[in-house]
Design brief:
- The mean pLDDT is 97.
- A seven-stranded parallel β-sheet has the order 3-2-1-4-5-6-7, with helices on both faces.
- The protein contains eight helices and seven strands, in the order E-H-E-H-E-H-E-H-E-H-E-H-H-H-E.
- The chain is α/β, with parallel strands linked by helices.
- It is globular and about 50 Å long.
- This is Short-chain dehydrogenase/reductase SDR.
- GO terms for molecular function: oxidoreductase activity, acting on the CH-OH group of donors, NAD or NADP as acceptor.
- Belongs to the short-chain dehydrogenases/reductases (SDR) family.
């Protein structure tokens, strides 16, 4: 029980990596606030945690809206006695040629992936300063360290996440707040399922050949599993990583080593 009694907020926890993190944190003893734009999905995650004997609440949140984010932070702190860990998993992604990227797609991607994370980190820091410390975990990507073609808005947002995380880590290290980011490679999440056809078009592949193609390009021969991801998230959320801050940790099976 590495996280016993800790109050943890997870954005994007209605599905994918956010949902897996919320459930894994609960199994380590944490009290979970599930945040997602899809209220039904958020409720589903919270209900699963509660059914398995954990503590959870849920709330519909638009991370790109500061009032929505700060209201959710207040609710989490009031319900569970503060916020010890805040993990930002909400995100959007679109694969398309550079000249086909519209202003609307650019704005949506940056608003959710970067501005939304900025708002969430502000809310987290506000509450963590009251508790003399805390942990922020931000989702970046291997695309936040090495750009990919036809991924312009996503790459820009994820490079930005690393800079945001490092700045927070430097500013609040002496106040006991740690901030780190995770940079996964490919994980077959619902978000990836939605863009497999676009990636197949980009590489001139059949959609069913995309994941086998990735496996061939990764030194360890497979994509990242949910457990690989949650094991790292638990480590960063726990005191096991108490001397680690400002890091952008690769989770790529060896396909990225810097």
């Amino acid at each position: 029980m590495l996280l016993r009694g800790k109050s943890i907020v997870v954005t994007g926890a209605g599905s994918g990596l956010g949902r897996s993190a919320a459930i894994a944190f609960s199994k380590e003893g944490a009290k979970i606030t599930v945040l997602d734009l899809d209220e039904a999905a958020a409720k589903c995650t919270a209900d699963k945690i509660i059914a398995e004997g954990g503590e959870a609440m849920y709330q519909k949140v638009n991370v790109a809206d500061k009032g929505s984010v700060f209201g959710a932070g207040e609710a989490a702190a009031d319900t569970f006695g503060g916020i010890d860990v805040w993990m930002n998993c909400a995100g959007v992604s679109k694969i398309l040629p550079f000249l086909d990227c519209t202003e609307e797609i650019w704005d949506l991607t940056l608003n959710v992936n970067l501005k939304g994370m900025f708002f969430c980190c502000q809310s987290a820091v506000t509450h963590m300063l009251k508790n003399n410390g805390g942990v922020i975990i931000n989702m970046s990507s291997q695309s936040g360290k090495k750009a990919g073609a036809q991924y312009q808005a996503y790459c820009a947002s994820k490079f930005g996440v690393i800079g945001l995380t490092q700045s927070i880590a430097l500013e609040y290290a002496q106040q006991g707040i740690r901030a780190n980011s995770i940079c996964p490679g490919v994980v077959q999440t619902p978000m990836w399922d939605k863009q497999i056809a676009d990636y197949a078009r980009k590489r001139n592949l059949k959609p069913e050949d995309v994941m086998p193609y990735f496996c061939k390009t990764i030194p360890m021969g497979r994509v990242c599993s949910y457990k690989n991801f949650t094991d790292m998230a638990i480590f960063l959320a726990s005191d096991k990583s108490e001397y680690m801050t400002g890091q952008a940790l690769n989770l790529t099976g060896g396909s990225l080593m810097h």
